[in-house]
Amino acid sequence: MEFLSVKKPFVVSTYLLLAVYAFLFFFSTTVEGHANVPAVLAFGDSILDTGNNNYLPTITKSNFPPYGIDLPGRVPTGRFGDGRVFSDLIAEGLGVKGMLPPYLDPHLQDSELPTGVCFASAGSGLDDITARVQSIQTVTDQLYRFKEYISRLRNVAGEQKANYIISKAVFLISSGNNDLGITYYGLHLRPLFGIDAYTSQLVTLASKLVK
Fold first, then answer.
1. Is the torsion defined by CA of 17, 23, 26, 29 positive or negative?
2. Can you tell me the distance from the alpha carbon of 133 to that of 183, in angstroms, rounded to the nearest whole number?
3. Which of 115, 140, 113 is nearest to 126 (CA)?
4. Fewest CB atoms within 10 Å of the CB: 5, 31, 61, 100?
5. CA–CA distance, 174 with 211 (Å, rounded to integer)
6. How far is CA 156 from CA 70, 108, 113, in A?
């Protein structure tokens, strides 16, 4: 059948990328017990974004119906889903809190900082160009916000406790699929790369992100 005809290099590269991210996820969420997890910090794309794009000048938003129909009051919050997203569920599953707030929310309370926030921006990728064409946060932007968060956390909790929270927090990362779907295949913004070369570049960027 025609739709099953896929070039082998694409399959190999794609599965390599997925394997890397499966490893990153399980590595980042390996904890001894729920009591050891004071906070959850999320980076990446729409799988984890809890509403950061609401506060950015982009059309990549989900703050309108039918999004949020399973949330209390059926109110869309900027999450790309009917209700809570993966980062919310992980935070709840670890006994941290039921909803992970978006860091860009101007009304974010200091009391939320010790238990974690979300830096993810729906539509972003490992390749910064993926985010820039949509006027959303790049991974580089998210890391800058993370440094800003650490400073705020130290002001709220004190340096010693803040360092403890960061060292014991669970870091969630979901990124890479938009680079292929939007930048490479959708808008053809990387014409000089073959698919193998581009996915290899994404793996390199993923390694740098973790470091």
1. negative
2. 9
3. 140
4. 5
5. 15
6. 33, 13, 8
208 pLDDT tier (thresholds 50, 70, 90): confident
What's the one-letter identity of residue 32? E
Domain boundaries, given as residue ranges, for the chain: 32-210
Q: What's the burial of 10, exposed, middle or buried (CB within 10 Å: 0-12/13-18/19+)? A: middle
Burial class (CB in 10 A: 0-12, 13-18, 19+), 133: middle
Q: Give bridge partners of residue 168 from the DSSP assignment.
A: none
With CA atoms as reference, report the closest residue to 51 among 37, 66, 68, 38. 68
SS3 call for 69: coil
Phi, psi of 84 (to 5 degrees): -75, 155
Tokens 């309108």 found at: 64
What is the rounded CA–CA span in Å between residue 207 and residue 148?
22
DSSP code string of 152-178: HHHHHH-HHHHHHHHHHPEEEEE-SHH
The half-sphere exposure of 140 on its side-chain side, counting CA atoms within 13 A, is 7
Comparing C-alpha atoms, which of 169, 128, 153, 174 is closest to residue 34?
169
CB 175 within 8 A of CB 167: no
For residue 194, what pLDDT band results from cuts at 50, 70 and 90?
Answer: confident
Which residue(s) pair with 172 in the sheet? Answer: 42
